[in-house]
Design a protein that fits this description.
Elements: E1 2-7, H1 20-31, E2 35-40, H2 48-58, E3 62-66, H3 72-85, E4 90-94, H4 96-99, H5 102-108, E5 114-116, H6 121-132, E6 143-147, E7 150-153, H7 176-182, E8 186-188, E9 191-192, H8 203-207, E10 212-213, H9 216-228, E11 233-236, H10 245-258, E12 263-268, H11 275-283, E13 286-294, H12 298-303, H13 310-322, E14 326-333, H14 340-353, E15 356-361, H15 369-372, E16 380-381, E17 396-397, H16 403-427, H17 435-455, H18 458-462, E18 464-465, H19 473-488, H20 492-504, E19 508-513, E20 516-521
Parallel strand pairs: 1-2, 1-3, 3-4, 4-5, 8-11, 11-12, 12-13, 13-14, 14-15
Antiparallel strand pairs: 5-6, 6-7, 9-10, 16-17, 18-20, 19-20
Helix pairs in contact: 1-6, 2-3, 9-10, 10-11, 17-20, 19-20
């Protein structure tokens, strides 16, 4: 049986890691005996024409897609395209949005046959042999599906207790050269489960209230495998990584024992901060820790059941600085009961930390306490256009704070950042910036150009070269740079600064066949070009 997994488009501006959930799903299908491919539209453009060719080349029996709330409409549209291309394909969706919006998804999207609810690996293990035999799925728990003209929920599935029994994420199925060219960290998880009760978060419901840990051996094996793949920066995406200090130290000591050298970052909660643990993390390469602080008003933190204090936040940030870890703090605007005074409290507190910080707007995702009990809060949901649920714009209001009030508040912060950035832009290359500041400006310009190369498939679009250049890579690279610069209107020197490292680092290569020669992305080891 052949299974294609869709990684739907996701804004590169949001710094996506190689999609971890997609890779776990793909690995589960592989372990169950299916032949699997990932159709990745995160680091390449999507079109129905491209999807049609991929499906014709692979002829999948099953096509699955994940989605978060923001990408749900696009994922649903892609599944509609899948059915139009091949109505015989079984279509499956999973992920946090559809897990708590399953019936509505099936009602709104006739192209979707089945929803995998919550943690999906064990469900996949059970449905794969049934799908291979053309059998029905109504007796497999953990699904919402169409059955005899009705929408059927097949029952609750327990969470997986032994995480080490899961296969490693199937990152080998991703277009790894594109992700390495993008340059963002690759994410891992070392545990699942969250005992906290934050009303705006899906964690507790999606992965359960009891924390389940992977073994230290398994975690560091995965880190070592990622380094072997050519990644040099890793983000530990657990919400609770630093909560179990003994285990953090075991992981760090195993990293030291194996002599692994890489940069990494982690999420943490301020009420689990520990200087000794942070120091050991720094010793093994951790240089940044992110804290979700959410508000600078203590009463607000109690209201949203964050379970932290402002004093803990200050102490945690200070601990990071003491051991030379860069602290990052995240705040929310538009939480239930938000007022101009509570926003001012957040502004003062954020500035007092002396840390890098930023703001997001509250997005009450389906399945969260705040969305399911909206009538209990001082909150009005303004839209269910899920494409707007990117946390970069207000989709709610409180009795005291209008959408425009929230926008204006964040705009003042953005203006401060913009003024500083203009200073750096104006000083670029003029000797008024520090070398590090010039490096930041150059890097930011390169990032925007890199996004365009990936999103518009410019290596493919502009990659044809004269046959006599097939054995002259320097000339061929200059030809490619010229073509992309003309196509995009970007500065030639900037395009060269993007594409030359792509070639030097082995992300792109020249392929010559008969009288045709072109640039292409380098396939993963063992994969066809």
């Amino acid at each position: 049986m052949r299974v294609a997994i869709i990684a739907p488009p996701y804004p590169l501006e949001e710094a996506p890691a190689p999609p971890l959930g997609v890779c776990y799903v793909a690995a589960a299908f592989e372990q169950a005996g299916a032949e699997v491919r990932i159709f990745d539209y995160v680091v390449s453009g999507y079109s129905k024409k491209k999807l049609k060719k991929a499906m014709e080349d692979f002829s999948p029996n099953v096509v699955g897609s994940t989605s978060v709330t923001m990408s749900f409409p696009q994922a649903m549209a892609i599944m509609t395209d899948v059915k139009e291309i091949d109505p015989s394909v079984v279509t499956i969706m999973g992920g946090p949005h559809v897990s708590f919006y399953a019936r509505e998804t099936l009602e709104q999207c006739p192209a979707v046959d089945c929803i995998v609810v919550g943690e999906g690996e064990q469900t996949i293990a059970e449905i794969t042999p049934l799908l291979a035999k053309g059998q029905t799925l109504e007796n497999v728990p953990g699904l919402v599906l169409r059955h005899n003209g009705e929408i059927l929920q097949t029952g609750h599935r327990e969470f997986i207790q032994d995480l080490d029994a899961l296969p490693m994420p199937a990152r080998h199925l991703l277009p790894l050269s594109r992700y390495k060219a993008l340059g963002f960290p690759v994410s891992i998880i070392t545990s699942r489960g969250c005992p906290n009760q934050c009303i705006f978060c899906l964690g507790r419901r999606m992965v359960g209230p009891k924390v389940r840990y992977r073994s230290t051996q398994s975690v560091v094996d995965e880190i070592e495998a990622l380094l072997d793949m050519g990644f040099n920066r890793i983000n530990v995406a657990d919400d609770l990584f630093t909560s179990n200090k003994k285990r953090v130290r075991e992981v760090c000591n195993e990293i030291k024992k194996r002599g692994l050298v890489f940069g990494w970052s982690a999420f943490s909660r301020v009420n689990t901060a520990d200087k000794e643990t942070f120091a050991l993390m720094r010793e093994t390469g951790c240089d940044c820790v992110s804290f979700g602080i959410e508000s600078g008003n203590q009463e607000m933190l109690k209201r949203v059941k964050k379970g932290i204090t402002l004093a803990q936040a200050k102490k945690a940030v200070a601990m990071c600085k003491e051991v030379d870890i860069l602290p990052h703090a995240s705040f929310m605007v538009g939480l239930p009961g938000e007022t101009h005074e509570t926003m001012a409290d957040s502004d003062r507190f954020a500035k007092s930390l002396g840390a890098i910080y930023g703001y997001h707007f509250l997005a009450p995702f389906p399945g969260t306490t705040v969305m399911e009990n909206i009538e209990e809060y001082d909150l009005e949901v303004l839209t269910t256009d899920w494409t707007l649920y990117d946390a970069n714009r207000p989709v709610v209001r409180t009795s005291q704070v209008s959408p425009q009030d929230a926008i204006d508040f964040v705009a003042r912060y953005d203006a401060e950042c913009a003024a500083e950035w203009k200073r750096l832009e104006d000083g670029f290359g003029k000797g008024t910036n520090t070398p590090l500041e010039d490096l930041r400006v150059a890097g930011t310009r390169k990032v925007a150009g890199t996004f365009q190369v990936l999103e518009e498939d410019l290596v493919e679009e502009c990659g044809a070269i004269p046959e006599d250049m097939a054995d002259a890579p320097d000339k061929a690279l200059a030809f490619l740079v010229d073509a992309i610069a003309k196509h995009t209107g970007r500065d030639h020197e900037l395009v060269e600064s993007i594409m030359a490292p792509f070639f030097k680092n082995g992300h792109i290569r020249i392929v010559a066949e008969n009288e045709n020669a072109c640039w292409t992305w380098t396939p993963n080891p063992g994969q066809a070009a």
